[in-house]
Structures are given as C-alpha cells and as structure tokens.
Amino acid sequence: MNEKIPVAVLGSTGSVGQRFVQLVSDHPWFELVAVTGSQHRVGKAYAETCHWILPEPMPEAVREMKVVATTPETVDAKLVFSALPSAVARDVEPVFASAGIGVCTNAGAYRRETDVPVLLPEVNPDHIRLIERQRAGRGWSGFIATNPNCTSTGMTIALKALQDAFGLDTVMAVSLQATSGAGYPGVPSLDIVDNVIPYIAGEEDKVEWEPRKMLGSLNSGEVEPADFRISAHTNRVAVSDGHIVCLTVKLRRTATPEEAKEALASYPLPDVCRDLPFAPVPVIAVREEPSRPQPRLDRMTGKGMTTVVGRIRPDSVFDLRLIVLSHNTIRGAAGGSLFNAELLVREGYL
Amino acid sequence: MNEKIPVAVLGSTGSVGQRFVQLVSDHPWFELVAVTGSQHRVGKAYAETCHWILPEPMPEAVREMKVVATTPETVDAKLVFSALPSAVARDVEPVFASAGIGVCTNAGAYRRETDVPVLLPEVNPDHIRLIERQRAGRGWSGFIATNPNCTSTGMTIALKALQDAFGLDTVMAVSLQATSGAGYPGVPSLDIVDNVIPYIAGEEDKVEWEPRKMLGSLNSGEVEPADFRISAHTNRVAVSDGHIVCLTVKLRRTATPEEAKEALASYPLPDVCRDLPFAPVPVIAVREEPSRPQPRLDRMTGKGMTTVVGRIRPDSVFDLRLIVLSHNTIRGAAGGSLFNAELLVREGYL
Amino acid sequence: MNEKIPVAVLGSTGSVGQRFVQLVSDHPWFELVAVTGSQHRVGKAYAETCHWILPEPMPEAVREMKVVATTPETVDAKLVFSALPSAVARDVEPVFASAGIGVCTNAGAYRRETDVPVLLPEVNPDHIRLIERQRAGRGWSGFIATNPNCTSTGMTIALKALQDAFGLDTVMAVSLQATSGAGYPGVPSLDIVDNVIPYIAGEEDKVEWEPRKMLGSLNSGEVEPADFRISAHTNRVAVSDGHIVCLTVKLRRTATPEEAKEALASYPLPDVCRDLPFAPVPVIAVREEPSRPQPRLDRMTGKGMTTVVGRIRPDSVFDLRLIVLSHNTIRGAAGGSLFNAELLVREGYL
Amino acid sequence: MNEKIPVAVLGSTGSVGQRFVQLVSDHPWFELVAVTGSQHRVGKAYAETCHWILPEPMPEAVREMKVVATTPETVDAKLVFSALPSAVARDVEPVFASAGIGVCTNAGAYRRETDVPVLLPEVNPDHIRLIERQRAGRGWSGFIATNPNCTSTGMTIALKALQDAFGLDTVMAVSLQATSGAGYPGVPSLDIVDNVIPYIAGEEDKVEWEPRKMLGSLNSGEVEPADFRISAHTNRVAVSDGHIVCLTVKLRRTATPEEAKEALASYPLPDVCRDLPFAPVPVIAVREEPSRPQPRLDRMTGKGMTTVVGRIRPDSVFDLRLIVLSHNTIRGAAGGSLFNAELLVREGYL
C-alpha cells in the first residue's frame, strides 16, 4: 500500500454514518474524500450539518468537508461505505455498483439477493466470490457487499466455531439490544428508561435467516443455506452500545461446555484475513467469570471487533447455553463493513 | 369476616418486607400487629429503623410500631408473612409453624420439600392440601406455605393456561428481570446503568423446576411434577419493577396463535378464589399491540396482580412464542403471599 | 353540579394531550366529548391513531371516539383543554376564545400577554380577574387561561410560601428535569442513558420570568411582576416523570430553616380552592429525611398535585437552600390546567 | 528517568484503587510493585480477590500479584497511591509518611490540615511547598499530598482561570454527579434508575471549602484561603462516570461571556507541569455547542484529564453562568493523584 484508497461514506450524518466517518478517518489504507447526505444538507460543511453523537471527537479532516449528493458523479472514489436507510439503498447502491464503484454496505436491502454476499470475514470469506456472479449477471464493474444485521453478527461468529467443531441442529436466540442499533434519534427515552421493549420491527426475521446464509456453503456460485433451525426473540434494553444474545443450541454431535469453550476460544482468524487492520484479535474472547460478558465492561474488547462469549454451560433441553456480546455499531455495522472492504481489497475486487 | 385477623411480617424492613407491610396495611381481612427485624433493630420504631424505598408512603399505623425479635413469643398473631432471607427462614419458619402459626413465605427455603406447597391460587389451589401431610408428618398445628420465585410466577400462570388447553412438551424461557428482585441495596448502580448482567445466582435452577412442581398433579398427598422440560437464561436489566420472560413453547397438541390467545385471555379464576381480595382481575391480560407488554406501562395491570401476555406468535422451531410480564414484588412476592393467605383462610387452614 | 360540563382536549394524542384525556376521564365535573388532532388523524378512532404512552390504561370511553379537527365548529364544548404546540396554539386558541369557549392551555404562546393569567390556584387565584380585561379588550366571550411551564410550577408554589412569610430578594434555581417534559418522542435515548443534557431550549428564560408574573400583584387590572431576581440553569436527566429544582434563596427578612419549614408546611390552600377536585392535599409536603424528595418515590404525593419540598437548610451565601419536586405532567401540565378550569368554573367564568 | 520508580497502591481493590492500578500500569515513570488490601484479602492473587469493575481490562502484570497488608514493612516502594477510606487513611497514611514514603492520596482525611497540600498541578503547584513545613513539623521524611474531592476538582480548575483573569467574589455550584463517585457497590440501582438523589453525605461541605484552600495563596508557609464565597447543592444522577457542575459566578471585575471563554480556553499549563505524562492537554476545553459538555460524550476529553467547559453565558443575578464537566475517577481521583506524584517527583520531593 503506497497510496491510500479514496473512499466515501454514503448517508454520512446518521449514527452509523458517523461511525464510518470516525473509523475510516484513522484507517491505514483508506482516505475519506467525500461524505454524502440528504438534499437539505448538500453544500454544508459536515461539522455544521451533522449532529455528532459519538463519544470520540469528530475527525478534524471531515469538519470542513462539504456534504455532497449521493450520486457517483459527486463522489470521486472507487469504494464507498453505505449507511443509507434500506429503502434508499435499494435504489442508490446499484447506481454506484454499475458505475464501477465497490459498495460495502450496512443496509439490508440486498442481503437476500442470491448473488450478494452477507459477509463476515471471520466466517465466510469465500462468499466473496458471489461478486463474480453478481458482476456477470448484472453487468456491473463495481459490486455490492453487505455486512449482516448487528444482532446476527456476533451470534453467527460464535455459531461458526460451534458449527465447525460439532455441527448445528437448532438455535434458540434471545437478544437484549442496545439503543444505538435503532439509529438517532431512534428510541425515545420515554420508551426505555425503567423499561424494556420486547419488540424490534423486522429484526427477528433477519436473525432467523441471515446466520443460515452466512453459515451456508458456496457451491457452483450459489450459497446453500446451512441446514439448521433458528428461532429468535429480540428485545430493546437501556444500553447505549453492545448487543447481548442468549443462545441455546442443539448440536449435531454433543459437546461438553469445556469442549465448546475450547472450540470457541481457539477459533482461528482465516489466513486470508491475517493482519487486516480491522481483523479482530482475538476473533472470539471467552470469559470465565459467571456474570460476563456485560455490555459496559466488554463491548470494546479488541477495539470493539472481538466477539465476547461467556457462561458456556450445559442445557437441560438442548446441548449448550451461552451468552454472546458484540459491539453493534463497530463489529455489527461500520467496523464490520470496513473489515469486509479490507478483505475485498486484498482479494483484488477493487 | 367480622373481625380482622391479626398478622405479622417477619423480616419487615427489607424490600419485600416493606411491600408486605404496605399491602397488608390496606387489607380488608388482616390487621398488622407486629413487625420483626434483626437484633439491632429490635425496640426501635419502624419508621426510625426502616429505610423505606417504596413509592407508596409508609402506612401511618406502622410508623410507631416497635420492631420485635423474630420469635413466636414476641408475635401475637396466628398468621405471619415471611420476607426472611432463605438461610434464616430455614431455621425460623418451622419454629413458628410448630407453635401453631401459619407461615406464608416468600423465602425459597422450603419450596423443594415434598410436603410444602409452592402455591399460586390461580394455578394449583388444590396443592394447599399438602399442608395436611405437612402437619401430620411434622406434628405442626401451624404450617408453611410458599409462593414461587418472582420469575417463575408469571410464566407459570401463562403456562398453566397453555397446559390446560394444549398440553406442554418443552419450554424455553429467557428473562429480563427488574432490579427490585435483588432486594435492597441489591444491584449496584455501576452494574446496571448502561448495562445488562446476564446472570442471577441460583435463578435459572429455580425457574427450571418450580413451574414443574406447581403444574404437577396432586396424587395421594404427593405432587408429581408435570412432565415437560424447561431451559432458562436469566438476565438483570435496568428496570425498577416488572419481570419480562420470553417464552418459546412446544405443545403436546399444536395450536395457532389465535387459539393460544383465546386460551390465555379466557383462563378463569378458579371458583375457590372467587372474590378473594387479592385475586387478579383478569388473571391474564392479553395485549394485542406488537410492542407490549412493557414493564413501565403494564406492570400495574390489575393492581400488579394480573399476568400480562403479548406477542403471541408462531415459532419456527417449536409451536409458539410469547412475552410474559409480571410485577415481581407484588404478584411475584408479597402480593402473591397475601393471595395465598386469603385462600388458606377461606379453606379453613387458620 | 347536576350535570357534567362537556369538554374537549385539543392536541389530544401527544404526551400532554394523553394526560389530559386520562385525567379528564375520571373527573367528577367534566365529560370528555371530543378529542382533536392533526389532519392526518381526523376521522380515525382515538385508540387507532394514538400511540398511548401512559402507564395508566387508555380510558374506555375515548377508545372509539373519532378524532376531529381543531376548530370550534367540530367541538361541541364550552371548555377545552389545550395541549397544542405553542406555534399552533398561537393561531388556534384565540379562535376558540372568540367563539365563546374557555381555553385552559398548557401551551406557552399567551403566557406573556398582559391580559392573560398564568395561573396556579394555590398561588394567584386572583389573577383570574385578568380575564375580564382580556374579554373587554379582545371582544371575546370565551377566554384563554394558561398554566405555567412545568419547571416554574413547583418552584413558584414553594416560593409563594416563602414570599408570604419572609419576602423574596433573589432566587437561584437549578433544575434536573424528567424526559416526559419534552413530549414524545422527545429526548432520544442515546442522549440520556448514562448522560445528562445541561440544556433545554428556551427553558431558562421561562423559569426566570414566569414566577415573577405569578408572584406579582394585580393592581387595577394589571399584574405588576414581583420584585425579585431569578437566575436559572436547566438540565435534562434520565428520569421519566418529576422535576427537581435546587433553590438557593435570599429573603427580605432572614429566616431559619425551621421557620421556613413551618411556612412551607403550613402554606394554606386558598379558600376559593377549597374542595376543588384537583386541589392538592396538602399544597406543600415537607420531607424531613436528608435525601428526599426523590422523583421516583415522591412524585405521586397528593395524586401528583402536591409540591414536595425537602433539605431546607441554611446557605453560606444567601439565606436558604431547599429542594423542590413537582410532577411535571400532572401538577406541571394537564393536572394544573384542570385545577385552573375548576377554579374558573367555580368563579363563574364559564 | 532511566529506571522506573517502584510504587504501591493502598486499598487497591475498591473502585478508585482499581483505577490507580489501571493507570499506573501504563505509566512511563512508575512501576507497580505492590497492592494492598484488607486482612481477608492478604495473600490472595489480585485477580482472585478483586471484583474488577472497569471497562478497561485488568493489567496482566497485576493479576498474579499477591495482595499484602497496608504497612510500610510489606510495601517496598518510596511512593504509594492511597485509595483508602478516609477513616483508615487517617491512621495509616502517617505511618507511611513517617517511614519515609511519599503518600499521594485520594482520601479526604488530611485535606484540612494546614501543612498538607490539596493539590491540582494546573492550579496551585506552589502549594507543594507545604510539604517542607509538614516534614519539619511532623518529623517525617516522607509526606502526604492530597488531591481534592472529585466534585471540587473540575470546578476549581475552571474557577482558577476566572480568578486569574477577573477575580472571584461569589460562586454558586450545583452538581449532577456520577455514581462511580460513591465507589462500589456504592449507590443501589433502586435508588438511581428513573431517579435523582438530591443529597450526597458530606459533599457540599467539601465543595464549599476545598476550592478556597486551593485557590488561596501561600504566604510564609501557610495557605490563606481565597477570599470568595461558595454555596453548593450536590446531586446524584444515573450516570456512570463524569461529574457536571452548574456554576453561577460573581466576579471582582465584570466580564463578558466572550472574555470568559477566552480566559478559560487559553488557561495555560504551568511551566513546572510541562510534559508531565498526566498533564491535561488542553487544561480546559471550551465547547461552543449549546448542549455541551455532556458526560457520555465529553468525559474522556484529554484522556479524562481535561476539564471541559460550556454554555458560558451571562447571568441575570451574578455575572456568568457556565457548565463544567470533569471525569470523576480519572481527573477527580486516581489520575489527579498520579499527576500530583509526577509533579512531586519532578520537584525533587521523592
């Protein structure tokens, strides 16, 4: 890498957009050259139009950058990170891809498409090859690569380690999700102070199919979803960042908690991801204390990229119970997309 | 009822003890005549020694009452409500029972004994008859009757309606529990502000066997636990009162969500409970909105005695998913014990 | 009162509007006959269009009521409660007043008008007579009567007791305000979980002049603002309901904390308010414990209408320091407006 | 600095003790060689006996360190950091000082002694010379140097800038304090979820005299307290870290908000503190946004050592109002003590 790759953030002023801007600004490979926003923000300085809500300060370099419209013409970059709302992403992302631009997106719009990878480099780096079919089929010189939903992310990484070691039969998942997952302004405080909301629109559906696609195998250019069942409850709790998922798992081959611990703790970073700047170190951290992981204490493990697992114990109905924690706006959104982009660059897709 | 029954609260200064004092003070049948406490409180006025933490004001009548030691000699009552810690309850409650006093207890010490009922009048009023065996076997003229753990309470009431209508095969339960369940001082604020604690010592075990005992059948003086399996995860969240339980249920006979809704909403109060002052009206309230029940909005349904159920929907692995909410210090503790006492009075056990 | 007075709630679906609907529904004098809302809600059943956010259930009688437009023609009532946003209230409330309808409003639009009372029946019931000037000057047969800002409310009631007893020279006020004061959706949870926002737009200004108007004297049809100085800081904290104000007060005649306590605790309800359904009992409750009042424990004192005062202590710069708590959506908004309406009915303004 | 200075942490397992351990472990000058604790912890590995509550991981080097008793004999260090409770500190700290050990303490026990500095290197580095009198008078070869209370810290730094530029006449301070200031377990969650506690035992007294000592001048070996008045209200809110103080200030020479902003933003680090590892950069950060500083967003400014000021605006009674934020366990406790130690090392007191 002699020269940094110019990149842009689409939908840069929302909560995930801000996280992209913050993480990209320090990136050793990428240089932020454009930020896009809604029509009423276009032409304004980023610092002026963006209500910054991250604890980390707004990067100096972006403060005076003028927000531009979300079109390939206004964005001089070969790689863009998309934090667009799904409905907008559906129309806009293909325009970028067909203009020869690589789109690494947090939006859910294209995750279900059979020629679009839902990518976690720790889990399914080979799915990147769907892009070849995508390009052939759609006539694009760019591409769309998605990261999964923030709740699917951590649990899929943990499930991958179990799948490799023991096979998966059935997964029951119940989430306790942070409010940052709903964006900004997102969840009204009257709904969450001294409260739980046992419902997140559309979330359970995503949690029930995304892991199966990611854990599926790529055969002759198609992903065959992994053959196990998932059931999910998703809940919102009064936490700022960090999603907890309570997993109850039936394996193909039974395993003791100790064996599962070993499988999780030793789950390796795939060779192809070695030394990528956003590769989690370790991929999975296993906590031994009875009451960990906890969002406030553990979400920043591995700079927010590590999946933290704890309370691995036997189950009275299935085989195992465990708790998974993942930082929802870093590993589960912007950081995940950056990690995807790094893999795509290394593999020559740019 | 011409005259009120004199009652005492054992362990009256803790958080459940306070709830007993508050609820008993308005009770149409009972009159609070004594409050007990630890040695260092004995002789002090209740208002002076008790750090009152309920939003409802301390009842006037108790303010000047002198705290007495927790012995039958110092308590002139035929019925006592016990909010003692389990380890203390184990030693003290039998002393009261053998002195001819009825003990309605929130402590877990005797719940596993085969001659002690774990009682929810909506669910297993017939289990009250275990007391006959208890008296015969132990030579007591009083008795010990327990209410279940606060998390077991709501879910067992909902499960009873499903058991009656469709039979139960397997139950997966994941709780999101209020901090009041841990007493006072209980959960440190540093552990719960912007956080979740995915662990409550001893709780999962209770949630996995108590419902089976309560839903079991009484045959020749013994309870045969109901024949279904339960698995539980229990979590603490930043809520003051009101436990949420996410249930995923496999039934003996499959049922549509509509049929389940009907079974839950129409679950009747047993005849023997009719018009008891603490009988919940309705027993189960079914909410139709997608995001209900919520602790802050729904915990006081039916004066905190009603079990609130919502999000009844099909499951992709088992048959049904639903959300149960129950007020943990009213229905799940002091209010539950009062309701038990009412049933015991009506049935002539006093 | 033989027959109930028909009333309507303007802007009935927002958070204050809901509180009006809830409190009016149980009112012994008033009968809710209409609820108004924005154009896109008109014609829909209240239960269908309103996202109800109160812990108290939506009153049965309003569920099927069709929302109507906010015009005198669509509302068949002689008295309306307005929860309109200020900008809308400015245009709409005079239309009602000139149509002969009494408007009791929580909106701030007309509070500064010299012929409009900012009314707290405990404090300045005589200011009601401004309405005569209002009617004469504007040619209205109806009227507009306002209640103060939710933060001004509690502190003004406490200051009134001190003013009467000792005179006021200077007041320093720092508030810790609940999020319900910002309406719904209002404060985003990401702004308030594990956080404080030391700013509320426009609030400090209101807190600095409203008390002086209310504590001023009515001379020949004009209110001369009370002659003392106020300085305010206003903060938002993670509380659902109940505003705390820390007051530091310089008096005209010095007073000991004991004297101040006596003046506050014995502050009488004005004769003209006696037995009004929403009259607070007591007007001011003085707590003796060092750490009270607290929002969660004390906000519902006197059904949410009582002003709770504590920590009355000497000050090293001025004379006294004290803490004031008031329920911001009951005493400080809808309940306050209802109390005003009761006074207006009794005094023959309807 | 060729070799690191061996240091110990007294009272190492509490919340401030942990912060000391965490911050010292990365320190370029100091090497942690001993951790002390209560009798029941002595001999146990730190990782085994300490319930670690910081989001930052426990430093590897300390995990296996055996906890020792809090005596000079068991601690082979010339410098110790004390996180002892005040009552213990009163007895133990002099034992260390008389054994020739420098004690940098967060405990309040000796702050009022006329020969003990309450030290903020940004503010009163010259007060360090009190130690000469302390040694002469008490016959110690070591010393005790204290940092102020966590709430006094940030406000005193801001006040120093105003004092230098305009002189101080009167200060009204109202705090909104984080729960970590109360240690662990500290504030029960039932006291703070959906609540404010308008009282912190002993705190207002400290806030009213500590700033005057620190802002006083050292004349012939004695500190003459600065001649201005302070009045304080102190409140606990549901924030994990970061104390907000609302200040209303009367100056000797009046100043516009712009002049005050300039004085605060340009307040220099004293020369003697230049390049000390824990010196804040900048000393004071001035935020221009209307709603800043906020604890969650701004507490980590300058690695938690910078004092953040905002909302500098005129006051209607005094001259200025402003908001001050300071990280209470870093700048206001362990980090402050480390900064003091650095100054003491540089000035040759070790």
Query: What's the quaternary structure here?
Result: homotetramer
Question: What structural category characterises the helix and strand content of chain A?
Answer: alpha/beta
For the largest beta-sheet of chain A, the strand count, sense and barrel status come to: 6 strands, mixed
Q: What global shape of chain A is seen?
A: globular
Order of helices and strands of chain A: EHEHHEHEHEHEHEEEEHEHEEH
Number of strands of chain A: 13
Q: Which stretches of chain A of 5+ consecutive residues score pLDDT under 50?
A: none
Biggest interface pair, counts? A-B, 42 and 42 residues
Strand coverage percent of chain A:
15-25%
Strand order in the sheet with the most strands of chain A: 9-6-10-13-12-11
Question: What percent of residues of chain A adopt helix (DSSP H or I)?
Answer: 25-40%
In short:
The structure is a homotetramer of 350-residue chains. With 350 residues, chain A is α/β, with parallel strands linked by helices.
Overview of the molecule:
Chain A is of the alpha/beta class. In chain A, 29% of the residues lie in helices and 21% in strands. The first copy, chain A, contains 10 helices and 13 strands. Chain A has helices spanning 15-25, 46-49, 60-63, 86-98, 130-138, 150-166, 203-214, 257-265, 295-298, 330-346, and strands at residues 5-10, 30-35, 79-82, 102-105, 143-146, 168-177, 217-219, 222-224, 229-236, 243-251, 284-286, 307-314, 320-326. Chain A has a 6-stranded mixed sheet. A 5-stranded parallel sheet of chain A has the order 2-1-3-4-5, with helices on both faces. In chain A, strands 7-8 form a two-stranded antiparallel sheet. Chain A is globular. The relative contact order of chain A is 0.15. The mean pLDDT of chain A is 97. Chains in contact: A-B, A-C, A-D, B-C, B-D, C-D.
